[in-house]
Amino acid sequence: MNSSTSAGPLTGDVRSDAPVTALEIGMFLVLLASYALNAMDRQIFPLIAADVRREFGFGLADTGLLSTIFTLGMALAGVPTGYLLARWSRKAVLQIGIAIFSLGTLLTAYSSGFADMILYRAATGIGEAMQLTVVIAIAASYFARFRATAVGAINFSFGVGAIVGPLLGGHLIGIERNWRLPLVVFGLTGFVAMALIAATVSKRMTEKASAIATHIDTRGATTMWNRNTALLTVMSIIGGLCIYGYLGMYPTFLREHLHYTPSDTGRVMSIFGCGVFASIFGGWLGDRFHPKLVLSLSFAGTGLLGFLLFSGPTGMLVQSVLSFVWGLVVSGVLYVNLAGYHIKSVRSSLTNRATGVFVTTLYGAGAFAGYIIGGIAARFGWSTAGFAQITLLSVFGIVLTVLLRTDRMSLPVRKP
């Protein structure tokens, strides 16, 4: 596995100028489908968090930590996965990642208390980081001229899982009145996905890299220690606190503060997934318009939505609309372009490491987002929590955007 043949192309991100075939696109769709399954796993725990809290007697902050601790696993695995990709085949790292998060999801259903449950939840994040880093690396390699759009396609598949997961999970809970059933179903399905990838996805596709013959980096940094990467790292931390403050505890806010039923909560969260479908368009915006404009408007929208979600009207229709717009603006534009601009800040040879830095920082912050917003809510109320953790941090994100040196970002050019 540690062979020079796999390490070579990954280091330079080089492949021939031959167009991507329909078969390769089909194999990439299989990879996206596996990530959609991952999104289903991720969305299930916030949906069942209130039931878990009731059975085990966990506090609100502890429940929030359980909802988002998987991102700590992602943070711990993000950068090491980037280095693994320089030595192991992408397909091998991908399969290992799927196995880890599927096993962690399955074992969560059989937890005996807080200690082992938080361990299993963190393990799912380690597996997801490995899978996500690989899929982003493949996408950035094939679509080098439109990297943010390619990342948007990945987030689009997340939107599919974000819709199906809560709906199917809420249905499964309703059938058996048992919060463990969705975890078992989705955990086992992950191993089915592994078998499908093994049978249908060729290493000839996963190990190829981008054509630098027609896509030449002209301004990207030659080292990870550069101004743009540093600023984007802080912005990714802010993004993680905002995104996972919502994803980790918003369902609990709906169920415990607004007294929504599990099925109604699942419907609202699935509508959030509809907004994520704008990810491909959001990535196109990042490839088409100035980074400062895209990021500043995204952070502004995030701050406004954070205030309205936790302090605005409480009706299901309004909350559904706000959740849809959150998915569109925050997941569809902000998340996608933070990832895309991390990659554009460096030369193509550093794509794997740039992806690892993005995964580590955003999800590392997200690991504690639920605990922080839950703790603030328990002491000062949900309105204060949403304003402090989402709105104020978004304002800081806008300030950082102004400091970017976009003239030093990687801009691909056409071969004469």
Report on this structure.
- It is a multi-pass membrane protein.
- It comes from Cupriavidus necator (strain ATCC 17699 / DSM 428 / KCTC 22496 / NCIMB 10442 / H16 / Stanier 337) (Ralstonia eutropha).
- Helices cover 78% and strands 0% of the residues.
- The chain has 416 residues and is mostly helical.
- The protein has one domain (4-408): MFS general substrate transporter like domains (Growth Hormone, Chain: A).
- The radius of gyration is 20 Å and the shape is globular.
- The chain starts with a helix and ends in a 14-residue tail after the last helix.
Q: What is shown here, in short?
A:
The chain is built from 17 helices and no strands.
Secondary structure category:
mainly alpha
Can you summarize the main beta sheet? none
Shape: globular
Instruction: Kindly report the average pLDDT value.
Output: 83
Supply the number of structural domains: 1
β-sheet strand percentage: under 5%
Radius of gyration, CA atoms, in whole angstroms: 20 Å
**Weakly predicted, low-confidence segments:** 1-17, 211-216, 412-416
The CATH class name reads: Mainly Alpha
End-to-end distance? 38 Å
Q: Judging by the overall fold, what is the CATH architecture?
A: Up-down Bundle
Level of helix content? over 70%
Order of helices and strands: HHHHHHHHHHHHHHHHH
Tally the helices: what do you get?
17
The CATH topology label is Growth Hormone, Chain: A
Please count the beta strands (DSSP E, at least 2 residues each).
Answer: 0
Question: What name goes with the CATH superfamily?
Answer: MFS general substrate transporter like domains
